[in-house]
Design goal:
By secondary structure, the protein is α+β, with helices and mostly antiparallel strands. Helix content is about 40%, strand content about 15%. The longest helix is centred in the middle third of the chain and has 17 residues, at about 105-120.
């Protein structure tokens, strides 16, 4: 009996985990950071609503779908295969960690259903043939337009960046849905050193409650993924003439990484 237990442990050690699978996809994409248009998080000013597609994940409590979508962006946005990636449904299930709590067949089914939800939101197109599932990335704003790599040259084309270490070091695995959503909100303001994210504006700006907003920020600070500092806000009707509010910025471990400088033949010789 003891021999069987040891043998099973050895087998499990050699099985790929969800993190292993995510790391392999990121390694294949050959990048230091993953670009994501800011309009996924929040629409630009001037429209009927500031809500981006991210709102539907939060209000629909779809953490699995959000994690899967971000990995699809990571896998497809290098453009090597025309914004498309294809894997066995078991690989998709492992990518989403579904295999940890479901049988093999149930995990495959769960992966397909999660991808179909993304297709219903017009963020991807997906099809399957046998056990293979093919996914093609669409534009992040949910309009269903074909995807193209953002270059940041126009307001509609501005993007945030997520370092690949966010996944390879397992930081995504620790976040709840509010935490992951607020991580994207804070990352959207990566052009600023510090920014305030008032909870009373959460519904208007992003489409979720102030409570969800505050819980997300609190978790990010507790995990060391975001930094927080207080500041005084003028308040003429307050007893002290001011109130204390807070500003936030990404911690160094979650800021975009600099791509390694490629050595030329001349520099290598020198």
């Amino acid at each position: 009996m003891k021999t069987t237990t040891v043998a099973m442990q050895d087998v499990q050690k050699n099985e790929a985990t969800g993190r292993d699978t995510r790391a392999a996809i990121l390694k294949r994409s050959i990048r230091a950071n993953v670009p994501l248009r800011k309009t996924f998080v929040q629409a630009n000013k001037g429209g009927d609503s500031r809500h981006g597609p991210l709102r539907d994940f939060v209000t629909g409590r779809d953490l699995r779908g959000l994690r899967a979508y971000l990995m699809i962006v990571a896998a497809c946005s290098n453009g090597d295969k025309g914004w498309t990636t294809e894997h066995d449904s078991a690989v998709w299930a492992r990518l989403m960690d579904i295999h940890e709590t479901a049988t093999s067949q149930s995990a495959r089914t769960g992966a397909w259903r999660a991808l179909r939800r993304l297709a219903d939101r017009t963020l991807i197109e997906c099809s399957r043939s046998g056990t293979k599932i093919k996914v093609t990335l669409l534009r992040e704003d949910g309009t269903g337009k074909p995807y193209d790599r953002p270059k940041g040259e126009t307001e509609e084309d501005r993007f945030l960046q997520i370092p690949t270490t966010f996944w390879t070091q397992g930081r995504d695995e620790k976040l709840s849905l509010p935490g992951l959503a607020l991580f994207l909100v804070v990352a959207r303001e990566n052009e600023k050193d510090w920014a305030s994210f008032p909870g009373d504006k959460a519904d208007e700006w992003y489409g979720w409650s102030a409570d969800t907003h505050e819980r997300g920020l609190k978790q990010l600070v507790e995990l060391g993924l975001v930094q927080k500092k207080p500041f005084k806000r003028k308040a003429p009707l307050a007893p002290a003439g001011f109130t204390i509010a807070h500003k936030y910025q990404r911690a160094p471990i979650t800021k975009p990484r600099k791509a390694p400088v490629k050595k030329t033949a001349a520099s290598a010789t020198a």
